[in-house]
User: Fold this.
Amino acid sequence: MSSGNLLDSLNKSEEKAYKLLTEFAADEEFGEKIATAFGDDFDTAGIEALRQLWKSGDFTGLPAVEIRSAAEINGANGAFSVENNKIYLSGEYLARNGGDGNAIADVLLEEIGHFVDARINISDAAGDEGAIFSALVQGVQLDQSALQALKTDNDTVVLTLDGKVIQLEQQNFTGQFTNAIADLDQLLTTLQNGVNNRVFSESIPIVGDSLKNASDQAVQFIENIRTAVHDKLDEIADLTNATVTDIQNALDAALGSSGLNLLKQAINVVDTTDEVIFDLKLGPNTPSNFTTSLASNFGIPGVGIELTGDANLGLGFDFNLKFGVNKTEGFFIDTSANDELKIDLNASTPGLNADGKLGILKVAATDKGSSFNGSFNVDINDSGGRLTVTEIPSVNLTNLVDAKLNANADVKLNLATSFGDSANFPKLSSDFNVNWKFNSADIDDSSFGDLPKVGFNNVKLDLGTFLSDFAKPVVQQVRNITKPLEPIVDVITSPLPLLKDDPFNIKISLLDIATSPIFRTKTPKIGFLKAIKDVVQAAKALDSIDTTPGSVLIDLGGFNLSQDIRQLPELILDPNNIIAPTLGDPLAQATGKSTTASSFFAGAKDGGLRFPILEDPKEVFKLFLGKTDATLFFADLPTLDAEFKYKQTVPVFPGVNVNFGGNGGFGANLDFGFDTQGLFAAASSGNSADIFNKGFFVDANSGFNLNLGFFAGGGVGIPGAAELSADIFIDGTVDFKLNDPTPGDGKVRPPEILQNLSKGINCVFNTTGKVEAGAEVSYELLFVFEDSFEIARFPIPGLNFSYGCGGGTEIKNPVLAKDLGSNLLRLNMGPNASDRGSGTPFINEINEVFEVQAGANPGQVFVSAFGYVQSYPTTSPSVGKIIADGGTGDDVIIVQPGVAAEVDLAGGDGNDVLKAGDGSATLRGGVGNDGLNGSPKADQIFGDDGDDALKGGAGDDSLDGGAGKDIVAGDAGADTLKGGADDDKLNGGDGDDFAFGESGNDRLSGNKGNDFLDGGIGLDTLYGDVGN
Assistant:
């Protein structure tokens, strides 16, 4: 600044200082304030004379002001000399604060205060009386601690000026920079740690959190600043006696053009008696470029992709570093501004060709333009607006550093997917695309950024590797499974032993009988037998297909994830939460592009062989998402089911006949497939044989059955024209069901079958059999109308059995209820199902149906379930109350009219139906959509969670729908109805009712009677109907 400009700034500041003095002279508390600054023992006449001059605007008696260099006045901003009666101002200070008249006026008033002290006191007042005077003139309120600090400050210095030794009272920072290096080291190191642990530790696309521990100088830019400043401060010989200018020069050397070249403008210095502040605007002219490792998951959570490689990064920053030293607090960093630091970051992966994994699949990834471009706005926080050295040991980095990210990330990768070179798995290719935006995204938010858009697009299947590496081994495994069935097929298709030696060479098999229009009782299903032959033909067709890799590609389309990957750990995405576009039929593509493949798929389809990855691409997407239950192949062999019956009628005399005959049948159900569990097992063990050993499975419901029976009876009428018959029968049935040693997944795998076989052939199947007797009535009219129905069927004791790994046991009848004494009966269902008895059928059934009917005697009831009927009570005099809890599953509990006992029924979880008899009832639906029907008496009915239907019946009932969209009907009686949460419909029915819709948009109808209706919260519709 030129000398003219300096004088202009000085003149304007003098005018401001004089104006303040005029106002101060008129202050009613002038005397008290003068005593505060200069003590009580001062020349009152002298100060009064000055007061009158200031009041009149006469300031000619004030000392002359002379501009000097800071070095000449000991680095001070201003000083006053009694010997010369002059005020000296630092030219550097005037230049720095030329636009700030208040700052210059503050210095002038302090030096005028020193002049006043010399005029009215014999000796210098204690402390920095000039600073106190300046504050009081400007209306600044000084608390006791600040006043005391100024009272003890020594602002006097002796120096030589113009060849004379003079004593000055100065206005400038009078503290020391002794600990500058150590204190700045601590402060800047803390900031770097805060950035590393709060900003760079946030996982972002492409690089993840790899910058957190990066040693690149571009990342450790605050550490670079610390090191450069440390070294330049270390060059100052005597920090204890260093001036503000010395420190400023060191900062210029470290960070300016001769150092790191980060200074964007000249350092602004704010220098007062108590402290000095250095305000630095820092940042590189161009971003620093460097490479770093890719994030192991490419910075994309939830999907399960893993890649190795490098990313190119560019990093720049704008840093408003404002620090200083206070005589009381020591060194500090000013944190009062918003967003002191901005970090610009970009990342890309040009030319990337990386190997990695997608779940259990191996991938070769090629970059198609992936990029990240963004900025972190970093706010440094401290409760007092300053981070001091003394606070560092207890500082919490989470509270110290906060940041928000504005960025856009595009991940574009082409993935070539396989399961290794030697594994039997088709090759797939896809484009993996992610767009993720960050709009002032808070780094502490669990949902960081906007919802990412994630998709696998242009998914293609290599038909050649599909047929050679996958379909061919699969079909061979199918052949291994179907071979053991050939003896069973032989039994069904071979001539019956009794007819082998027939002289007329009549060869009749069970299949012939079952399919004969004469004997069959329903249309037989024998596609199972043909399917086995079709599998053989499909296997032969594979040998003639061109399976050259890449010869034919099948377009499977693509899919977008609709779930929020930010909220999920790796590999647990639900494939049901994907959005797949409508595609052409991939199977049609396969057959249309290869004539020889067409014959294979036709034979496979006829044999019941399905390849879900060609029928439903979602199965492929499951594989991309790492699901162990993705089904790659499934053999849905046709069910074998046939029944036959032979009846012979012998007339005894006209119109009366004797009937006898036999019946039989057989069936088989065999389903098996291949899922991704074997792939996971192979990935874990490294043994490719596990792909099929542990990936193949047989459906646990697979099995076969045989039944034979005979009957005898009589009838009236004319056989073939009009006849009514009644027969008694005996039926025997044997079921062979595959034994699943680890029930739950519904799949039996080869190692499990071998494990069962090692224990004995009886462990491969769970075999059950029963022999039953009963009676049947049938009619026939003119060969057109005929039908039959059973009037009784019951098991023959001792002839029901179950045979498995534990040997043979007789099946026991289940115990349907338990007499608890005191006229209390509990149904053995839900959590009490075990009381039905071990070894009994239906012990694990959760979808239970129980019915209670009135017995012949008062207090007696019949309980029926699973085809069994039992009488109760067993010990109590009568049944006075019935309790039951359905537990999990969809349960039905019906208490029929005529049962007078009180009931307390709970449906538990599931969609349940509960109905009371004639006694008062408490009904609880539990979670699920339930139907509850009360008794003619006063009932308590609770729908609980779910969309329920409640009906009270006659009596004064209390009904509460609970959460869900419920229908609540009171029926006759004075009822109280509550809808609960959601949109409900309430109907009071006959009687004076109270209906409360509660929350939701409800519809309330009073119906007959004097009713009270309260819709509650929501948009409700109320109908009073008949009555008041």
Summary: Residues 180-450 form one domain.
